[in-house]
Task: structure prediction
Amino acid sequence: MRVPATECPRISREFLEEDRGQQKGDFEREYLCEFQEDGQSVFSRELVERALDSSVKPLDVPPMLTTW
Result:
């Protein structure tokens, strides 16, 4: 589900305009659901996405047994 603040009736246009002067990218991340890289991540989004492989099946691990 994605609902940017501009489509939320509880958040006024005036409020959003006041906050628009944030650092570049902050407004888009905070209010428009645009999750961009901010240059502070250890791994880039591209690197993480390249590491994902949908052909790998999850491990079927049985629940741990505890003996007391």
Remarks:
- Helices lie at 13-19, 26-31, 45-51.
- The chain has three helices and no strands.
- Residues 1-37 form one domain.
